[in-house]
Please model this.
Amino acid sequence: MSAKSETTWKIGNATITRIEELLGPAMRPAELLATWDPAVLEEHGDWLAKGFYQASTDQFIMSVHSWLIRTPHHTILIDTGCGNGKNRVESPFFHQLDTPYFDRLVQTGIRPEDVDYVVCTHLHVDHVGWNTRLEDGRWVPTFPNAKYVISREELNFWNPSQNPHLPEEPRQVFMDSVLPIVEAGQVQAVDMTEQLLDNLLIEPAPGHSPGQIMLRLLGDGEEAAFITDVMHNPIQVYQPTWNSNVCMDPEQAIKTRLRVLEESAERNALILPMHFGAPHAGRVRARNGGFLFEF
Model:
């Protein structure tokens, strides 16, 4: 996976910047999407090939990134990717990474101590890694002055002390990337429907994980929707019943996806997912009882 330059959008008086960790061909469609049908390429293959699907290897082009929101008063980071030096044997793409993610963040003019909030939309391996970094042999919070916002349901579900049946990898993810911020007293648990700032709203987006949340940024009649893993590839705009293979509640994931698509089309919201290839963002339009995506 390769690097790409910084990309920035504006909503009201807030700027949104994508902080890249990984980008490139990563998974075959059937590995990602539970009901993938290659016949869809006959209609959608041309535009997918422009940044979302690599035909030569039959792989989706995927990104792992954070969204950095800067308002006149606050700095907010949404999700923190995989992290460097994390032991992820069961996820080879994320195992013992050494990426310049942190340098890319600093190059935007933001220092770790400047971040006011880190919003963890859910606690999967590729969304919490830079919550912590290794310092003198210990995992410590990367952002020392930030409140790490996590839904209470998500926090409880992935806590090994409350869910002893967790597999080894999510247990490890919690221990090195979540527990240190809990012990530092930096976690702000929310109940999935809260107002973080005057113009930044949290709402539930369950299905992919039990307590997944998404965010809506409002400003000057505009709206941006940070839809986390409600979708992993833009083909799901056209096939909203297609779930990822790691959606924990498939039926609920479809309900959430349809709701987000309908609301985003109605509100003309800028959609900012966590894993779309370039150009990484766009707007949903209603069409013939379904949806299309404009990049």
Observations:
- Residues 1-5 have pLDDT under 50 and may be disordered.
- The chain is about 20% helix and 35% strand.
